[in-house]
Amino acid sequence: MHCARVWLTLIFSVCFLLPFSAEGSQENLRIPHGFEFGISRKDALSMIESSKLKVVSDRKYSKDLRKVILGGSLAGVALDPLPDHETRLEFYKDKLMSSSILFSFEDETRFEFAKSELIGNLTGVLGDAFKRERMFSYEVLSWDLSDTVVLANLNSRKKTIEVEYVHKPILEKKIAKDLHLKRREDFGDPARQMFIDSNFSAQKKR
């Protein structure tokens, strides 16, 4: 049990505390998990290639949104055995908007211990001003900082822990565009829209 405690403490010290070596430093918050907010996908892939990590997935979800998933982490965890983990990078308009590391545990006891250690470590670094939401087996803790939102996603059923950093300036641009698209009155192809709205009255030709 003592070995397990040391093992998990080292994991969270390496993966979660290094970006906050200077508490409250925006410079450190801009580089979670080794990737700086705002870098392009091309630059991120170059870093991944030079580190010899494997890209598990590189998918485009919309014109502006793309997600890259890689096995392991750039900073690395020099421990044996390693927990299964992957890094997830989300790009908006080719700028890194969010970065997260997902840990998966096979053992429930190890998951519960890791959960306790993680909350303690994050609270120690980020402070007690966090929000907590629970729904069934899912629990989310969030810290709203000046330029960064930090999310700890805990799933007791799947025994997974994901810590995500979201860059607010880029996120706000995405939200603003999404809101604009919802509000705009341009519905695209008028002929297609007539069938969607059941409005078959065509405009008079001039």
Could you tell me the mean pLDDT? 78
Number of helices: 6
The succession of helices and strands, N to C, reads HHHEEEEHEEEEHH
Largest sheet: number of strands, sense, barrel closure: 8 strands, antiparallel
Explained architecture:
20% of the residues are buried. The protein has 6 helices and 8 strands. It has an 8-stranded antiparallel β-sheet with strand order 1-2-3-4-8-7-6-5, with helices on both faces. It is an alpha+beta fold and 206 residues long.
Question: Which characteristics define this entry?
Answer:
206 residues; alpha+beta; disordered N terminus; eight-stranded antiparallel sheet; 6 helices; globular
Short description:
With 206 residues, the chain is an alpha+beta fold. The chain has six helices and eight strands, in the order H-H-H-E-E-E-E-H-E-E-E-E-H-H.
List the helices and strands and how they pair.
Elements: H1 2-17, H2 26-29, H3 41-51, E1 55-60, E2 65-71, E3 84-92, E4 95-104, H4 108-126, E5 131-135, E6 138-144, E7 148-155, E8 160-167, H5 168-183, H6 190-196
Antiparallel strand pairs: 1-2, 2-3, 3-4, 4-8, 5-6, 6-7, 7-8
Helix pairs in contact: 1-4
